Amino acid sequence: MNTLFSEPLKVVNCGLSSFADNLQLAGGEVLNLAWQPPALGDVEAGLALARLLRHPLVEQANQRAFEAYLAAQPVLVDVMGAAEAIPALAQSRRILHSGPPIAWQDMCGPVQGAIVGAILFEGWADNAAAAQRLAAEGGVDLEPCHHYQCVGPMAGIISPSMNLFVVQNKTNGERAFCNFNEGLGKVLRFGANSEEVLQRLRWMKQELAPALKAALRELGGLELKPLMAQALHMGDEIHNRNAAATGLFLKRVIPALLATGLPLDHLQRVVAFMAGNDHFFLNLSMAACKSMLDAAANVPFSSMVTVMARNGVNFGIRLSGTGDQWFQAKANPVQGLFFPGYGVDDAAADLGDSAITETAGVGGFAMASSPAIVKFVGGTPADAIGHSRRMQSITLGGNPAFTLPSLNFAPTAAGIDARKVVDRGILPVINTGIAHKQAGIGQIGAGITTAPMPCFVEAIRALAAQVEQFPGNAS
Q1: CATH assignment at residue 349
Q2: In this structure, is residue 85 part of a structural domain?
Q3: Residues with Cβ within 8 Å of residue 377, at least 6 apart in sequence
Q4: Is the distance from CB of 376 to CB of 391 less than 8 angstroms?
Q5: Residue 408, C-beta contacts closer than 8 angstroms, at least 6 positions apart
Q6: Structural domain harbouring 238
Q7: Of 410, 423, 407, 416, nearest to 451 (Cα)?
Q8: What is the count of structural domains for the chain?
Q9: % of the chain surpassing 70 pLDDT
């Protein structure tokens, strides 16, 4: 003992950081571990987690869910009107929004503004004030996109007269849908609803959608997984950076457009619109990811996360094993870079269905493939690599279809395991745009955020209750 204290001290401190400070003042070399109890210190949730770890029912279910996700082959097969693709939209005045369910009066500014724009686009009201009254008085059914196999970026708005990309999983025949990307500036997804915005939506319906539908007939469908994999090798992470993916998409679709026989001026407007928007592929990436994750959904007892989505107020997740149940918590703010003249006080909370990309193992999980993204969201290339490495600690495995050159072509971490999130205290990372909290101002920056831990704690509670009710359960 005397010998121990006569030598230089090297201490690992696990607990209050003040203990480490005192040891350092005494001349010791200290490594301070930022440790906290799992499940936010909730004893009952911690016990529920303990019962689920290495549970045979959960392990077997996770293997089935993850294999179904890996086997999915999303193909862009068509462009359809929303009311045709989703019959429920034709049965009543219904508008779909991003994130988990939320009432009109609780919505953030951009989502309310976008709903007003959709009501005007549909012709259900003559002006913005009337449209707002219609929504506030319950004259429109408002539901999440995810309830209808859809995803939409930012406000996520889908109304009956809009057009959707139709992505079909060749493995099981099921379909997923996403709206079209409008470009940057004053756009519906950020809550803008001026005549300029409505005119663009009308043009997309009248010219863009028919042209793409005709091009897809010429192509016979477009496989999205190989295109996404190639884009990852060209500097995209397929959430906030889609420059390569959009270019690859145009390379395939322009020859098909030329073969349609449409008037040249029509084709020129369509190509100019897509080529002028590096984010055009984002919505296709989201639909592809939705398709892959829907394949893994509804596997009883699985702890694999199949949805992460935000509505600008709350963040919600779904697990494969708990079906359509949402687990929600207050959405985290986004830490990042703001455009000149804007700051944290101007920003809405985390918003949009685009976190489906991270849920599927790309986006923030694949930042190692996109060092240039840090100029947009903040940080350094080393941070981007660190994010991709850290996500390996909370996932069921890797997706060999999506590899990261900077990590020696390691597969992207995929299949978020809610058990590991709660047990290890590591939250899924998301890179995202930042919307102004007022409708119509638009994007004011981009950055990094995480899913909130309470979502996962509640999901673990629900999954444990389900496992314990199973006949013959052996914990």
Answers
A1: 3.90.1700.10
A2: yes
A3: 240, 336, 337, 431, 432, 446, 447, 448
A4: no
A5: none
A6: 73-286
A7: 416
A8: 3
A9: 97
Indicate whether 183 and 331 sit together in one domain. Answer: no
DSSP type of residue 349: P
Model pLDDT, residue 475: 46
> For the chain, what is the mean pLDDT?
94
Q: Is the same domain home to 275 and 330?
A: no
Asked whether residue 61 is assigned to any structural domain, the reply reads: yes
Task: Identify the three-state secondary structure at position 363.
Answer: helix
Same domain, 253 and 329: no
Quick one: 29 and 104 in the same domain? no
Mean pLDDT of 44-49: 93
Q: Which tens digits make up the pLDDT trace of 446-458?
A: 999 999 999 999 9
Helix (H, G, I), strand (E, B) or coil at 262: coil
Q: Are 57 and 63 in contact (CB under 8 A)?
A: no
**pLDDT tens track for 367-383:** 999 988 888 888 889 99
Rounded to an integer, what distance in angstroms lies between the CA atom of residue 100 and that of residue 331? 11
> pLDDT tens-digit profile of 211-240?
999 999 999 999 999 999 999 999 999 999
How far apart CA 430 and CA 416 sit, in angstroms, is: 13
Specify if 385 maps to a domain: yes
pLDDT of 8: 72
